[in-house]
Design brief:
The complex is a heterodimer of chains A (190) and B (318). Chain A has 190 residues and is mostly helical. Chain A contains eight helices and no strands. The longest helix of chain B has 31 residues. Classes of the chains: A mainly alpha (190), B mainly alpha (318).
Chain lengths: 190, 318
């Protein structure tokens, strides 16, 4: 019984993910992504990880995806984006990546089928990763977090509204001029 | 998860009574608001105007069900069902009385939070799919408002979780035998109440559908039974919210003399009436005031409540 439910849910998750990739309309794609996340939540539940299941729904489906929908709503895409997506989904574009992915898949199949005998080298487990990350590589971890912080501060700086004093002759200078230049340059969606 | 409580009869009974309650609330709200404002309210159809609900339903079913040509049809149809389904499934964990309920889930409280955060999609997608500026603005407001208020809603009830030591709603009720959690968790209760009003988009925090600013916000383009779904979904949200407030802060089914189920229903009814009174008495804040109040007042208050409760619980244990 549990196994049947597991396979049905997995099928739903995989189908929803495939549909998500092939939708032309971004919001429809997101809806399938939400469905896929909900299916993963059900999978967790079936495996007995109730806490992880509920957190999956609250955090991914309930909070992060709402922000995605929020942003896509604000971008206000029209027919033009759909045409663009259509162009990207042409079979020609997909042949290369599909072939390469198939090679990887075949390799994985060979490794799985040959079991322990496969020559996969030294196996690193999760605990070792943790010990090494917070031991000898602590400096690198801290540097990466500083980089993320710099990104956050930078995003805040760029998103700050440009205040032009009343009566000031309207002339963009410095950062504002660069920004407007950046916005105009590609000219595809603007 | 413990063994299921509800057999088919339980589930059917709870479902039927919920739908009847949600429909009756249409009449209750109009009648109560009228009484508080010194009017009569709907009193023509049937005794005390009780059949007004039937009249409203007939009207709603026979209205033209219009999908605008500029709408995103699939999403437009899907949106109103989401609030309805998530709110109804949210009732699965509500502990009505000992032995009455649908499931006894160890993470029942988190399940409620998950369902209430999923119900946001209804409004957001309705706003997007309508293809209308006012609807889109309503949808944007709804997304920002509910995502923000969800944060403090979650934090504000962690005090209750600490005191009870569990996420299981039935055990939380049992933990209140010594005294209702509203007394030690008064701050948490106030924050949860405000967050719940914001989540269910009721006046005074109904900015996503503020009539004077946005026509009708996210449901401007909706008519007929699709509008009815939003309408009934809102009443289900109120009922679920009052049931949760009763469970978390007012001792659920606990009470002297009367049977437990009756106590639960009475307390929930008082909660629902409080929601209606709020609508009749408070003005709507401005949108920036709402967001600033949430992040600058409610979030720090919820965190202080969390810290203080944690400190007290630890010091009492140690």
């Amino acid at each position: 019984m549990a196994l049947t439910l597991f396979y049905i849910t997995s099928a739903v998750a995989i189908f929803a993910t495939v549909m998500m990739i092939t939708r032309l309309n971004a919001v429809h794609g997101l809806l399938y992504l939400i469905l896929s996340l909900l299916a993963v939540g059900v999978l967790f539940f079936l495996l007995g990880a109730h806490f992880a299941a509920v957190l999956e729904v609250i955090i991914y489906a309930g909070a992060i995806m709402v922000l995605f929908v929020f942003v896509i709503m604000m971008l206000n895409q029209g027919q033009r984006t759909i045409d663009q997506e259509q162009a990207w989904l042409k079979p020609g574009t997909w042949i290369g990546p599909t072939l390469l992915a198939l090679i990887l898949f075949a390799e994985m199949l060979v490794i799985v089928m040959s079991g322990d005998r496969a020559d996969t080298g030294y196996i690193v487990n999760a605990k070792q990763v943790g010990t090494v990350l917070y031991g000898p590589y602590l400096l690198a971890v801290e540097l990466a977090s500083m980089l993320l912080l710099a990104g956050l501060v930078g995003a805040y700086h760029l998103a700050k509204p440009i205040l032009i004093p009343r009566g000031h002759k309207f002339r963009l200078s410095g950062q504002a001029a660069q920004l407007s230049f950046k916005l105009r340059k590609p000219g595809r969606n603007v | 998860m413990n063994a299921g409580l509800g057999d088919a009869a339980d589930i059917a009974g709870i479902l039927a009574s919920l739908i009847v309650v949600a429909a009756m609330l249409i009449w209750v709200e109009r009648r109560l608001l009228a009484v508080w404002q010194d009017r009569l309210g709907p009193n023509r159809v049937g005794p005390l105007g009780l059949m007004q609900v039937v009249a409203d339903m007939i009207k709603m079913f026979f209205k033209e069900d219009w999908i605008p040509p500029f709408a995103d049809k699939a999403v437009f149809v899907l949106a109103p069902t989401i609030v309805f389904i998530t709110m109804l499934t949210g009732f699965a964990v509500v502990p009505f009385a000992p032995g009455v309920g649908i499931i006894d889930f160890n993470f029942g409280l988190l399940y409620f939070l998950a369902m209430s955060s999923l119900s946001v999609y209804s409004v957001v997608l309705a706003g997007y799919a309508s293809g209308n500026k006012y609807s889109l603005l309503g949808g944007l407001r709804a997304a920002a408002q509910t995502v923000s208020y969800e944060v403090f809603m979650g934090i504000s009830i962690m005090g209750v979780v600490m005191l009870a030591g569990t996420f299981n709603l039935r055990e939380i009720v049992e933990a209140q035998r010594g005294g209702w959690f509203i007394i030690p968790q008064f701050l948490g209760f106030i924050i949860f109440l405000i967050a719940v009003v914001a989540e269910s988009r009721r006046t005074p925090l109904d900015l996503p559908e503020a009539e004077q600013e946005l026509v009708a916000g996210f449901h401007t383009e909706y008519s007929g039974m699709k509008f009815g779904m939003f309408f009934v979904g809102e009443y289900l949200a109120i009922t679920l919210s009052s049931a949760m407030i009763v469970t978390l802060f007012f001792g659920g089914w606990l009470g002297p003399w009367l049977p437990p189920l009756l106590w639960f229903c009475l307390k929930t009814a008082v909660g629902i009436m409080f929601f209606i009174l709020l609508r009749g008495s408070l003005p709507r804040p401005r949108y920036d005031q709402l967001m600033a109040f949430g992040w600058k007042v409610l979030l720090p208050a919820a965190l202080v409540n969390l810290l203080a409760t944690g400190a007290v619980v630890l010091s009492l244990q140690g």
